[in-house]
Amino acid sequence: MAKIFPQQVNRTRIKMEIYADCVQFGGWQAFTKTFEPIRFQEAIAAFGRGTQTQYVLDCITLAVEAHFFTTRESLKACVFASESDFNAFCDALAQYDWWLNERHAYAFAMLLDCEEFTIRSYADLAAEFREEYEKYPM
């Protein structure tokens, strides 16, 4: 009888080493398994948009995969340093017209408790994220 091997799923690799300059603004700390609130506006002021938005997505994804966020209510209190940081992040994310990579899609679908098809693009994710945040005031 032939041996059946489990399917190997290729997941998008998250390379945290490319974010060395972003760590000073908060985010997922893999060594201590903690999450420092992200000061997104400071990061944008220092480096501009682009890398910082991706950094936030990757930090949240890694924290979800590590089961750091146990409730959606705790998400808002933990991820961003202020309401204006959250809004700046959603504004930046809404400008992305790309499809979500599978790692971000699974993490955010689980975190926001929504169907995968509702967050197909990063702009969809920004809208869903804003809707979720409105339920839990800071």
Model description:
It is a single chain. This protein is mainly α. The protein has helices at residues 40-47, 51-65, 72-79, 83-94, 102-112, 122-134, and strands at residues 27-29, 34-36. Strands 1-2 form a two-stranded antiparallel sheet. The protein is globular and about 35 Å long. The model has no long low-confidence stretch (mean pLDDT 85).
Gross morphology is: globular
**Relative strand content:** under 5%
Q: How many β-strand stretches?
A: 2
Structural class: mainly alpha
If helices are DSSP runs of H or I spanning 4 or more residues, what is the number of helices? 6
Strands side by side in the biggest sheet: 1-2
Span from first to last CA? 59 Å
Average pLDDT, all residues = 85
- Major pleated sheet: 2 strands, antiparallel
Topology order in helix (H) and strand (E) letters: EEHHHHHH
Contiguous uncertain segments of 5+ residues: none
Helix content: 40-55%
- Roughly how many Å is the radius of gyration? 16 Å
